[in-house]
Amino acid sequence: MEVESKDLLNPLLFEGGVQAGFPSPTDEEVGNHLNLLQMLVPHPVATFYVRVKGDSMQGAGIFCGDILIVDRSLTPKDKDVVVAVVNKEFTVKRLSYQKGRPILLAENPAYSPIYCKAEDELEIWGVVTFVLHKP
Question: Residue 120 is part of which domain span?
Answer without folding.
Answer: 41-132
